[in-house]
Structures are given as C-alpha cells and as structure tokens.
Amino acid sequence: MASTPVEALPPSRLIVDLDAVAANWRQLDALAAPGRAAAVVKANAYGLGAVPVVRRLLREGVRHLFVARLEEALALRAEVPPEVMIGVLNGLCPGEETMAAEAGLVPVLNDLGAIERWGAVASAREARLPAILHLDSGMNRLGLDCREFERLAQDPRRLTAIDLRFVMTHFVSADCADDPRNAEQVALFHARRALLPSSPTSIANSSGIFLGSFAASDLARPGAALYGLNPTPGRPNPMRPVVTVEARILQLRDIEAGETVGYNATWRAERASRIATIAVGYADGYQRVLSNRGVGWLAGRRVRIVGRVSMDLVTLDVTDVPEAAPGAVVQLMGPEIPPDEVAAAAGTNGYEILTALGAARHRRVYVGAA
C-alpha cells in the first residue's frame, strides 16, 4: 500500500467551510429584508482569509463589503468588481483621501474634518464622491458626536460634494437583547438623521439583526455571525459552524502519579496518566490562557489540556482514549468545540479567538472555494 505523502499530513490545519459562510450570509440577508446584508471582512475576514471568503460571498450576490482600514480595502480592490462597494469603517487618515478616491473606495466619515477633506477631494475632481456618514448614538468611539452633529445639521451644505450612500450608527449592546439602550440608540439615530439630507440607513451588526424590526435598516453589517459565532448569546446558535482547528499528536508519554507536565509544573498527575503532545501553541493562535482550562476532541471524547500552553506545543491527558496514537488528529475548535466555548474558557469573546488565527502557522484548507 502506498504511503501518504508527508506534505499531505500537516502538523495542524485551519479548515474554513466557505459553504457555511455563504449559508450564514443568506440567512442574515433574509432576516435583514426588506433591506440587505453586507459582509464585514475586516481583520482578514476575522482571521479566516479575506480573499477566499470574499470570492465565495460574491458568488452569493454580496454587493457591499466592509473593512476597517484603507490597506485592507486596497488589498481587496483587485478581487472585487467596481460595482461592489468596499466601505472603510475606520475612515481615512489625513492624506489618504486621494488614494481612496482613485481606488473607488467608500470611506466612513467619522467627524467634520473627514467630511471637509473628502469634500475637498471631490470638488477638486469635479465629481461627487461616495461616502458613508457615521452618527454616534452612544458608543463614544467613532462617529459625529452631538456637538459635531449640531454643526453639520446647521450647515448641511458641507455634504454638497459628497454622495451619501448610507448614514450609519453602531450598537453598544446588541448582544444583550433586553438592554434598553438598543431602542434608545435607534430612536436617537433616526431623530438626528431626519435633520440631514435623505439617505439610506445602516444600523444592525450581527446581533442587531436579531433584535427585531425596530433595528431594521437598508443595510445590515454582519461580521461575527458570518463566521459561525453566536449572535444571540444565551440562546442556541442559529448560525452554521465555519471553523475547525485541528492538530496531530507528535508523541505519547506515560507518566506516574505525582509527576508534573509543562512549564512551571502547573499540573500534577493524580494517577498514572498518558499525555499526548500536539503540534500547536500560542504562536498558532491558541491562547496561553487556555492552559489547564481548554479541551480537545479525540476519537469521540473530550480530553483536557494539562500544563501550560507553550509557543509550539500543547499537552493533553488522553489516558482514557485508547485510540490515541502518534499522528492522530485532535480537534481544538470546531463543531464539537465551538469558538464561543473556547472563548468562554479563555475569558474573552469569539472575535478575539478567531482573529488570533490570522497570523497562525496552520495549513489553511477552504471547503467550497471558488
């Protein structure tokens, strides 16, 4: 029997189910009706690979993309037809306006200075340039605050040279469905935008789409839900799982009761144990805080991480899994261990868990790629 080529057996793999991403977008787009759903692909599509994700979503009919930074938008421009909008959520740093205009990008205008600079470039080009106006409604992060909004409302001619594609805001607590601030933000947003030239609106993020009709707008901006994170915490996840991280067992070791494992001897065996060492670590986006807290999935059973997560290696107690063997695959994230569960064990959110994968060394495998 021919042996399997070495290159077919990577130490670790990041598997991204693009068909699931597409299915998640279709569900979110249906929920956003009569508006549409965009796709937020910032941070390299939450660490999963912006180019393959975008290529798949374009096949589904996505026509609005959002990234955070200019360089992300420029990297995608060659992949995206000119009729597909690429919005830049962070806006532009002074001096980047001409580059953005030449690339046909749509910056989010977060303050009066940004409006002035974008309008000046538009006037110089003798063309109205597209943009999105951000009205802050409580986040106190980006967007026009109440004082800047009042100045704009008193002199809306500042927008004359700008083709406002959308007016947007951003929820503070959309993941808390019973938080009264959600309805308060929407009411404030609509009251303010009514004093400006009429434009389509963009309100809901992933969780906001599930808040109900009061949060509806012309364009929703889902991100996390596309990639399988639960937009409805405390309830069953309505999204399909997208991400699987798996690593191979490098070595098995039998230890006696009382022996320790890993740096600083943070775990001590209470019985004779079998320890599996797998080829993944915090350099691969599997966080050190998961030491003695995380779990893996091996041969249909959960196995505990024991000892410190190190840069390149993780150790697990596989004493009760007779199938454990060098080369066997351990799932660290996937259908059996969702990213949200990994996040809970790490004391963070699923966003951080996924984006940490962006610079990891895993071999990437895309299911359903174009």
Summarize this structure briefly.
By secondary structure, the chain is of the alpha/beta class. It has helices at 18-32, 42-46, 50-60, 70-77, 97-102, 112-125, 146-154, 181-193, 339-346, 350-355; strands at 12-17, 36-37, 39-40, 64-67, 85-88, 106-109, 129-134, 162-168, 201-202, 219-220, 243-255, 260-261, 267-268, 273-278, 295-298, 301-305, 314-317, 329-333, 363-367.
Mean pLDDT over the full residue set? 95
Poorly predicted ranges (pLDDT <50, ≥5 residues)? 1-7
CATH 4th-level superfamily of the largest domain:
Alanine racemase
Give me the Rg, rounded.
24 Å
CATH fold node name of the largest domain: TIM Barrel
Shape: elongated
How far from one another are the termini? 33 Å
Can you tell me the CATH class of the largest domain? Alpha Beta
Tell how many strands the DSSP assignment holds: 19
Portion in strands: 15-25%
Major β-sheet annotation: 8 strands, mixed
Tally of alpha and pi helices: 10
- Class inferred from helices and paired strands: alpha/beta
Domain module tally: 2
What's the order of the H and E elements?
EHEEHHEHEHEHEHEHEEEEEEEEEEHHE
Helix content: 25-40%
CATH architecture of the largest domain, by name, is Alpha-Beta Barrel
